[in-house]
UniProtKB/TrEMBL annotation:
It comes from Pseudaquabacterium terrae. Signal peptide: none annotated. It holds the Pfam family RraA-like. InterPro entries: RraA/RraA-like, RraA/RraA-like_sf. Its cofactor is a divalent metal cation. This is Putative 4-hydroxy-4-methyl-2-oxoglutarate aldolase.
Amino acid sequence: MNAPPDSIAIPAGAHELSTAEVSDALDALRLPGSALGIGHVAGRARVFGPAYTVRYAPVDNANPGTVGDYLDETPEGAVVVLDNGGRTDCTVWGGILSQLAAHRGIAGSVIWGVCRDTGEAEQVDYPLYACGRFMRTGKDRVQVEAVGEVVSLSDVRVAAGDYIVGDEDGIVVVPRARATEVFERALVLRAAEQRIVAATLAGATLTDARKQAAYHTLQRAGS
């Protein structure tokens, strides 16, 4: 199976974290992960789960491959991560895949490239993230080159089983080996921000509230 079974400890509340909170935690731990240029396109604006990785390549006319049959092997709860090299001239995800993925309980799809048939994703509330949308098919233009290998989302490396978090602000990638640490730090940052808001609404200055919550220390790399 491309995305390993959930054997790591995911802290309670991690599924509710925003990408901003996770991005701040990644920064504090000196980890990359914010996928530039990939945003919410259709369906529910929330995705969380382990990556199921697929990499595309230009079609080999002598030995053409398939485009979407990997979905038969994608486990429930996984996030399909498609690396089409950032191409915007042809799609690697469409309406049939959105409907089938939603039916099978797949968590969502994130594409370094474009998607189409976004209305069908909307109909089944299937989360789609991509560089944009374009109607032209990838059939006879690209083919699946690898499944389960390391791929790219913009300038971020993604291995099978890494955690993908998405919301209205975009996509972040959390290395599986550091996922517990990253999510725990993000939850601490969230709690500090909530204390800051509560203190300022009660009359404290923003400067004092941030000091009391040790907010700058929590955000600092290596702290």
